[in-house]
Amino acid sequence: MSQSNIQQLCVTAKEQLTIAINIMESFLNNITLLQLVDGQDEAANIFYQGYLSDLRHLLVFSEVCREKLGIVLRRGTFDQESAEKALYSVYHDCINRFFYPKNESYSEDGRYAYTGQDAIRFRKKPVRSARDLILDITGVFEELREALAYYESDYLTQLRLRKSQEYPAYKQ
């Protein structure tokens, strides 16, 4: 991939992460577990604990990746290798954390992706604000996933090829 394409991907990814971060921060700064549970049963408490935990992790990883991209873009000379590492981190640390949350409070159902319906399905019906948050940032992470699909697997293959060319004694 050309340097200008990678640089543009970095700019786009940083902008998209900023949008998602702002939405998540606003939600997390204005909601508590007690507000979400609001007199529901213990199952709801466990659901929202997992939901908030996944959201906080996603927020932190998104902020770290945005900062990595910012550093890459602020350098005097554009370092393509650092940029690719940063984009790889965005894919694996942010996009994967969004679509495959550890506590599985929601998941993506690919059968709905092409029907115009929301592809996100919740394990338990959440309150409207919690549901809206995930649906608001889904578009951001879907766009990032499409833009960075190369970094799902091809990036590692390219790294292995470069290493084998640099260190021919280590070819397997």
Order of helices and strands: HHHHEEHH
Output mean pLDDT.
Answer: 87
Which of globular, elongated, flat, extended, rod-shaped describes the shape?
elongated
How many distinct folded domains? 1
In total, the number of strands is: 2
The unreliable regions are: none
| Residue share in β-strands | under 5%
Structure description:
The chain is mainly alpha-helical. The protein is 72% helix and 3% strand. It has a two-stranded antiparallel ribbon with strand order 1-2.
SSE arrangement:
Elements: H1 3-30, H2 33-37, H3 42-74, H4 80-99, E1 106-108, E2 120-122, H5 128-147, H6 150-166
Antiparallel strand pairs: 1-2
Summarize this structure briefly.
The protein is mainly alpha-helical and 172 residues long.
List keywords for this structure.
mainly alpha, two-stranded antiparallel sheet, 6 helices, 2 strands, elongated
